[in-house]
Amino acid sequence: MTDPDSLQRFLIATALDAELRQRFEVDPAAVAGGLSLDAADLEDLLAGGERALGVLGRAVEAEVGGAWRAAGGPAPDRGAGPVLLELPEVRYELVIRPHAVQHPSGQIHLSFSTSVRPLGVALSAPTVQPPAERPEVLAAAAAVHAADPGARTDRLLDLAELLEG
Amino acid sequence: MDILIAGLGISPSEHLTAETERCLRQCREVLYLDTGPVTKALLERLVPVATPLYAQAYVPGRPRLSGYHLMAARVVEAALDRGPVAFAVQGHPLVYVHAPVLIRRMAQALGLEVRLLPAISSLDTLFAELWLDPASEGLQVYEATDLLLRRRPLQPDVPALIWQVGNLETRLHTTRRSRPERLRRFVDHLAQWYPLDHKVTVYFSSPHPLVQTLAEVVALGELASIAGALHPGVTLYLPPVQRRPVVDVALLAQLDDPAHLERITQG
Q1: B201-242, pLDDT tens digit by residue?
Q2: Would residue A116 be called left, alpha or beta, if left means φ above 0 and alpha means ψ between -120 and 50 degrees?
Q3: Contacts with B69 from chain A: Cβ below 8 Å
Q4: Which residue has the higher pLDDT, A52 or A5?
Q5: Mutate which of A136, A144, A154 to disrupt the B interface (most B C-beta within 10 Å)?
Q6: What domains are defined for chain B?
Q7: By CA distance, what is A138's nearest residue in B?
């Protein structure tokens, strides 16, 4: 029986491979979603599969991690042990659509159409605080949750007043 | 999804979309803002409980804004108690409706998920009934009181729609009819760009198959004489006074030129 994790890895690698090849033919510069790659990386990328995924991982580390460190990062804390640092995520939307054809012999032929779209990298915090995150709004929301069901109307009207405008 | 925000169209028995109907069926209750004769029965066919909000939200003499707050509070409260629930309004839920905006903000603060669906607005019915295509001359859309507050300029060569003439110069709710004097400042403002004999259309889209659409043509200078008929649902359509001539004749010449197409496209 096929290991589900292996199958998933295979599908993702296959999908990325097909998608990246296709995109490279149209626009080599955009092949890694805007990440800058040297010639060796591009060769590995075109080789597909695990090598391509490795290139993507290194490129993301260089671009995202580098930019994040350049933006400041946390102050070094030499006295303490290693800590897990929060890094920004790079998000791709990967859509895999399976297609199955059953032949008269009973054999089923499975294929996949795929698409991959970079969803961007968020390096900086939003400059304007969303209304729902203002302290007074958070307090009013907490008051709504704390109120007894059926007696929430006044608290909700307070919240509505705060969020007006 | 905790809260569905949907529009019923202008004539709910005819305009309710298949998408809205399907999503409403997933809700335990629909709180709605419409006074149409068939709306409650229509909604009860789709949702176990249909709760009208109009009477408690719109109180004569009170600010309409407090009515919007009450609607939003009722909808969010229902979602917290017994979601998923729906909030349904006549028309499109984001065309001249404020409560959905508030519901969305409150839902974000409370960790609730909101989905909003498109619907037929009076803008759509107006396009169809007045044969107005905004591609031809463009379109200006303004709220009547906002037009005066900001002294917004108008372009007389672009069709203009002025919403909520019946709510002119007040944020308090009333069902009283307008006096002719109420229109004075409004007509004076428009007269800066339109001649007083310019023919405008007073438009109100039919909310029910048995009710006729109102589309009465009147001179701008005579608008005050029908002030009593200008209820809050009425929209004023001002056709262009004249057509704006083409200025860039060089570009005009290129529009049908294959060589120009070649230059501005690739592949």
Answers
A1: 999 988 888 888 889 999 999 999 999 999 988 999 999 999
A2: beta
A3: 157, 160-161, 164
A4: A52
A5: A144
A6: 3-120 (3.40.1010.10), 123-238 (3.30.950.10)
A7: B109
